[in-house]
Amino acid sequence: MNGAQALIRTLVASGVEVCFANPGTSEMHFVAALDQVPEMRGVLGLFEGVVTGAADGYARMADKPAATLLHLGSGLGNGLANLHNARRARTPVVNIVGDQATYHKHYDAPLDSDIETVARNVSGWLRTSRSPDAVAADAAEAVAAAYGPPGQVATLILPADVSWLEAGGPAAPIATASRDAVDPATVAQVAAVLRSGEPAALLVGGSALREVPLVDASRVAATTGAKLLGETFPRRLERGAGLPAVDRLGYLAEFAAMQLDGVRHLVLVDTKSPVSFFAYPSKASDLVPEGCTVHVLAGPADDAAAALAGLADAVGAPADAAVVRAAERPDRPSGPLTAETLGRAIGAVLPALAIVADEGNTAGLFVSGFTAGAPRHDWLTLTGGAIGFGMPVATGAAVACPGRPVLSLEADGSAMYTLQSLWTQAREGLDVTTVVLANRSYAILNMELARVGAAAAQGVGPRAAAMFDLSQPALDFVSLSQGLGVPATRVETAEELTISLDKAFGEPGPHLIEAVLPTTL
Amino acid sequence: MNGAQALIRTLVASGVEVCFANPGTSEMHFVAALDQVPEMRGVLGLFEGVVTGAADGYARMADKPAATLLHLGSGLGNGLANLHNARRARTPVVNIVGDQATYHKHYDAPLDSDIETVARNVSGWLRTSRSPDAVAADAAEAVAAAYGPPGQVATLILPADVSWLEAGGPAAPIATASRDAVDPATVAQVAAVLRSGEPAALLVGGSALREVPLVDASRVAATTGAKLLGETFPRRLERGAGLPAVDRLGYLAEFAAMQLDGVRHLVLVDTKSPVSFFAYPSKASDLVPEGCTVHVLAGPADDAAAALAGLADAVGAPADAAVVRAAERPDRPSGPLTAETLGRAIGAVLPALAIVADEGNTAGLFVSGFTAGAPRHDWLTLTGGAIGFGMPVATGAAVACPGRPVLSLEADGSAMYTLQSLWTQAREGLDVTTVVLANRSYAILNMELARVGAAAAQGVGPRAAAMFDLSQPALDFVSLSQGLGVPATRVETAEELTISLDKAFGEPGPHLIEAVLPTTL
C-alpha cells in the first residue's frame, strides 16, 4: 500500500467519503488510488473554486467534512476565496494539496511556490506530510482538526513521493472533541440580564441556528421579551413553517442600526459582535449601539445548544413558548418580473426540505421574506463575503443530500466566478435548480458607490458606471448553461418563472433559469 | 484630490495607462476617480484570474506594466495563479489590492484576511499604503519595482480610507533602473569555453528571446558549433521567417535529455539551469547531463543582449552568421482534424505579426513546428505552469497591440479556468481568435499518470480514468462563447478549420473556433 492509499483509507475510516477534486500531475497516485478505495467518491470540478466551495456546501449539510484535492500552490490559490468563506462559516474541510516530491522541491521548478504561506491564511490546521510513514497519522489528525470544534479548514500538503512510496497502512480515526460546556454561572448571569426588564436582544449564529437551539432561543425571547435576531450571514439556518421565526441582522449598517436601536443588552450566541461589513466615511464601524452591553453566552467552540436549553430553564420558559412560523405562502404572482415578484414566485413554489444557497445579492432582497412561511428548508449564505460561493455550495449540498431539492439563487455578476459548477452538477446528475438573477449589472456596487460617498463627492461618471455594467455584451446564461450540459430557459414574467420552477423541481437533475430583471431595483 | 486620484495620476505619470479591474466596495473611490483621470483606461474582467493574466499578457507585449485592481484578499486569491505565471515570466505588474479602511481593520469583518501573506508569494515588492500622503510616492515606487530589472509583480495594498481621504497630489515618476552590465571577464570565459571545441549548448531565455539578442546568439552558435536552444516556457519568443531558428528545450524530460545528450558545456543566458517540471520515480530531476559544466553568461537582472553581442564579437562571429528561418508554410491540410492537421492549418494561415498565446498543451504539440517558417510573430507561453493563463494573456496582449492579430490556442481543460476572458474580449472589441483544442479530456494527465508510474503499478481503473474525462457531459464551446458575446463555430475537418481561421482573422473583433479533436492523439 502506497502513501496515497494509506491516506485515502484513513480518510474513509475517519468518515470522509467524498473528495472534490481538480488534480494535476503531482496528485496522480492519489487519483490512481481511487480505484483501490471505492468507498471514497471522487467528484471532479473544472476549477478549484468549485471544488473548495462544494466541500463547504457538503459539510454545511452533512455535518462532516469532505476532502478536496488541489494541485500545488496555484490550485490552492484558485480555491482560496471559497476556503475563506468556509473559514468564516467554521465549516470543517480537509484540504489535500499536492506538492512536488520532497527531493525535487529545492530545484524551484516552474509550478513551485510557498504553499504553506498561501494555506496559512485560511487554515486553522496546516501540515506538510514529510514521509509515507507519517501520512496516515497526519490525515487522521487533519480530519480531527477539521471537526474542531469549531469546524475549520485543515490543510495537508502532500508531496508526490509521499504518495507514491510504500507506506505502513491506514491510521485509526481520532475521536472528535466535544464542544465545551458553558459555565452555569455565565448562563445564570445572562438569565439575570434578560429578566432585568431592560431592552435586550439575543443574536444567534453558527451552530445555534439549527432547530433545537433555535426553539430554545425562541422560548427565551418569548418569555423575557428579548428580541431574537440571527447573524447576518449564517452558514446554515433551519427555517420555514413550524420553525422559530428569526430575523437576520441587516447587511446594510443602516438597517442593522434600526434593528438594534434601543437595545441595552446584546447576548451573543456562537457569533461575533456585529460590525459593519465595510467602513463608510462618517459612519460607525461597530454596530453595537451606545450604552448597550455585550454579553457572550457561548463562543464558537462552546455547546451553544446546551447553553440555550439551560438559559430557557433559567428564565423559566415554558416548553411550548417558542414562536414558530405559520405555514404561509404568497400567491403565485403575475406580471413583470421584479425583485418582489421573483421573491413571491419562489415563496409560492419552494418545495419541502429544499436547501437554498443564497447568493442573490441585491436582486434577491425579497426572497428571504417571502419564503419565511414556506415548508421547512435550510438557508446557506455567503459567510465570508467572497463572491462565487453559491453555485459550488449548492453543488456540494446536493452531493450531501441526494434526496433533497437544492435551489441555487445566483446574481449574474457572482455567477461568473464559479459558473463551472454547472458542469459538475450535470456530470453527477445533481438535483440543483439554479435561478440566475440577471439584472445585467454589479448592482450592489452601484449602491455601494453612493454609500461610500464616492458618488456624492464627484458624481458618477460614465467610466465609473461602466465598471458596474454587465450589459455590454449581455451575458446569455441559457447559452452558458447549455454549454456546460445543464438544460436552461429564460423567463421574463412572474408566471413564466413559477412554471419553470415547477418544471425544474419536478424533474431530476440540474436546471437553470435565467430570470431577467430590471437593472434598477 | 483624494488618495485614489493621486494614485492613478501617479500611475499615469509613470507610464501605466491601463488598469485591468474587478473591483468591490473597498475600491469604489478608485473606480470613481477613473472619470477624473481619463488617461487611465479601465478594462473590466468578470473574474480576477482574467484581470491578472491580462496584465501579464499586456506587459509581455507592451514592455511596460499595466495595473490591476483587485478586491481584498479573496480577489487577490482568485488572481493568484496568473500572478504566479507572471512571477515566473518576470513580467512587470502593478497590483492594486483594496483593503478595509485602516480603522476598520481590527474589527475583522467577514471579508478581512491577511492580504500581505497571500501577496508575498507572488510579489517581489509589497507594501500597504498607510496614509493618503504616502500613497502617491508608494505608487511611484511600485511602478519602479515592477520594472526591476528583472520585471516582477509589485503589490500595493490600498486601504479604503487612504483612497477617500484628501491627498497632496501625484508623485513624480522614478527612473527605471538599467540592467547590470555583464563582466567582460565572464564573456571572455564563456567565449573560451565555446572555442574549446568541446560540445556546447547555449540555453537562451527571458529577455534574450527577442530579435536582436537572438541574432547574436545564433551568430555565436553558428560560429562555434554550439547548439542554440530556447528555454522551455518563454514569456515572449520572437520567431518566424527571417528570425533565428531556436528549438525550445522539451517539456518532457525524456526529450530534453535527448536535446542535451553529449553536451559538455551549457551556457545559460537569462534562464535557469534546466530541471524537470515534476519529479518522476527513478528519473533525474536535474536535466543537466553528467559531466556537463554549467556556465552563466547573464542572469535575469543582467543586460543579456549586450552580453550576447559581446560574446559574438569575442568568438569572432561574422555579422551575417545568424541562421534564420526561411519563409515556409505547410500547404492547407485536408481531411480529419488531428493534432497534426491542426498544426498544419495554423501554419498555413497564421497572419503576419500575429501574437500567439499558447496553451494548447498536448493537442497543440505540432503547432510550434508548423509555424516556424510563418511570417514573423510572437509566441507567449505558460511560464509558471498554472493553467488558465492563455485566454487572459491573449486578452491583455490584444489591449497592448491593437493593430496586431492575436491567436489564443487553448486546450479545453485549461480553457475552463478563465473562460470569462471572452467577455472582456467582446466588450473591448479585441482582435483575438481563440481556437479551443477540444479533445474532451485532460489528456496531459492521462500521459502523466503513466509517466509517474501510477498507471504501471496499479493499472488505470475506471474511477481514475473518470478524473481525466471531459466528455460527460461534453463541453459545448460554441454555446459557451456565444453566451459570453463572442461569435463561435465548431469545426471537425482541417478544411473547415482553415476557412474559419481565415474568416476570424479577416474580421475585426473576437472569434472562437472549437476544433474537435480525437481524444487520443
Notes on the protein architecture:
Chain A is α/β, with parallel strands linked by helices. Chain A folds into 3 domains: 3-164, Rossmann fold (3-Layer(aba) Sandwich), CATH 3.40.50; 184-314, Rossmann fold (3-Layer(aba) Sandwich); 339-440 and 475-516, 3-Layer(aba) Sandwich (Rossmann fold), CATH 3.40.50.970. Chain A contains 22 helices and 18 strands. The first copy, chain A, has helices spanning 3-13, 28-33, 48-62, 72-78, 80-89, 115-120, 135-147, 160-164, 184-195, 211-224, 253-260, 304-314, 339-349, 367-370, 390-400, 412-415, 421-428, 443-451, 454-458, 462-466, 477-483, 494-506, and strands at residues 18-21, 41-44, 67-71, 93-99, 125-128, 153-159, 200-204, 227-230, 237-239, 247-248, 265-269, 293-298, 355-359, 377-380, 406-411, 432-438, 488-491, 511-516. In chain A, β1 (18-21), α2 (28-33) and β2 form a beta-alpha-beta unit. Chain A is globular and about 65 Å long. Chains A and B meet through α2, α4, α5, α6 and α8 of A and α2, α4, α5, α6 and α8 of B.
What's the short story on this structure?
2 copies of one chain form a homodimer. With 521 residues, chain A is an alpha/beta fold.
